[in-house]
Amino acid sequence: MFAGQYHCKLDEKGRFLIPTPLREQMESEGDRVIFVKGQDLPLAAYSVQEWEKVLTRVKDTFDEDQSRLFMHFVVAEAASAEIDKTGRILIPGRLRKVIPLEDDLEIVVVGMFHRLEIWNPSEWRRYLKQHDEQLEENLGKMIDLL
After folding, report:
1. What fold, for 5-145?
2. How far apart are CA 12 and CA 33, in angstroms?
């Protein structure tokens, strides 16, 4: 399970060091990551094992037309990358453009249970601020689950 948020720097090639708590789990599920454009502004990263579960759910849930759309607009845009021996991972160039990077090349990696989300820090803060009211409305329910 992935959890937490981590601020990471991209190097000049577009690689970042996976934070240790996330890296241990990621590597236990293989040495490759599948990057997919996210729902809002983030980039999503799945282990190959989790990505295969997503594809199985699509196959089991969607009809033929929905499945084709998913394949054309999600799977066709996905890209894989290998975790190197030092724990770095390269965000493929065309998908780096999904995260509007600033001059400091910082990203926020957010653990989302079965996947990671990769955000531009300004966009992450903006997203959290936009959802403050929703959080307040639902905080009681969330706390009760703990």
Report:
1. Chemotaxis protein chec (3.40.1550)
2. 20
Instruction: Give per-residue pLDDT as tens, 95-119.
Output: 998 888 888 899 999 999 999 999 9
Residues 52-84 pLDDT 10s:
999 999 999 999 999 999 999 999 999 999 999
Per DSSP, what are the bridge partners of residue 110?
Answer: 5, 117
Residues 21, 51: Cα–Cα separation, whole Å: 20
- What span, in angstroms and rounded, lies between the C-alpha atoms of 118 and 110? 6
Enumerate the β-bridge partners of residue 79. Answer: 35
For the whole model, what pTM was predicted? Answer: 0.88
Please choose, from the candidates 123, 35, 129, 26, the residue with its C-alpha nearest in 3D space to the C-alpha of residue 75: 35
SS3 content of the chain, % helix, strand, coil (to 5): 45, 25, 30
